[in-house]
Amino acid sequence: MGGGLPVDESVRGRPAPGLLPYIAGYSGYRQAGTAPAVHLGLPSPELTLIFTLDDPLFLAVHPDPGQPAGAYDSLAGGLHTRPALITHDGRQSGVQLRLSPLGSRALLGLPAGELAGLDVPAAELFGRLDAEIRERLRAEPTWPGRFAVLDQMLLPLLGGSTEGTGSAVGQAGRRHHSGRAARAEVSPEVAHAWRLLLRSGGGLQVSTLAEHTGWSERHLRTAFRVETGLTPKAAARVIRFHRARVLLRRRVERGEPPALADLAVACGYYDQAHLAREFRELAGCPPSAWVAAECRNVQAPAGDLVAASQA
Questions:
Q1: What is the pLDDT of residues 169-214, one digit of tens each?
Q2: What is the CATH number of the domain that holds 36?
Q3: Which of 80, 132, 187, 266 supports an S-S bond with 63, CB 3.0-4.6 Å?
Q4: Is 293 within a domain?
Q5: Domain for residue 46, yes or no?
Q6: For the packed helices 232-253 and 272-282, what is the interaxial angle rounded to 10 degrees?
Q7: Gap between the Cα atoms of 39 and 253, Å rounded
Q8: In a domain? residue 18
Q9: d(CA 253, CA 34)
Q10: How many domains does the chain divide into?
């Protein structure tokens, strides 16, 4: 990318049908010659997987405050309840994948719980495949071509390939599962509870989820956290917050008033004050400040309402 007019691209793509149970969507972004900026990586019900195209991604603050700041050519981030802080100097580009915690075993080779609150180089999970994906993405001149590369590279992983796996995850030394054992199915009970939470917008109690699974509340909490990285209560909170901020952003981008009191009721909060407290705790700022800072951020398209998921 040379001189001339600023570049500001943001494109969304749909994964191949075979990947849709695991990946809710692709987002391509490229900026150059724009003003330096700071972006909040907020809690959501989706894991983040990013492959950069030009400059590395720089995280100034991780959800886990114990992780040092650092630059990443590619990154995998687990579910979290604290914001990350991403900065750039006017240049950033890459492809972001919205990965369901229910798809983590199939695509990353380990349960999403092992990545809870962490950001790790994707090479720790994909091995040599990570460099190959980035090389092929950079060689493609168009966004549809880049999304097609991801389909081609990721679909074979669903067949149980173990190439590139087997390293340790993060500085904590958590064991990285490899091989077919790591790709064991998520328990039907946890998967059902997760999908119920998503469909309800985070509006179900743990007792209700337990009734639907046939498990005790205690057993469900333990198994759910091991699989996803969050307890059912924390997951409901994150899902509710994610829905609220996506709807808020859509309203603002359509030129409508935020109407925070109505938004709070629609998303299951007691009142506007409750919504504001959740924003301060999960985003580190009130809703108005988040809207002002984030509406032009290219890494967070307004259409990212929970789809599966997830991913």
A1: 333 233 333 443 455 689 999 999 999 999 999 999 999 999 999 9
A2: 2.60.120
A3: 80
A4: no
A5: yes
A6: 100
A7: 18
A8: yes
A9: 20
A10: 1
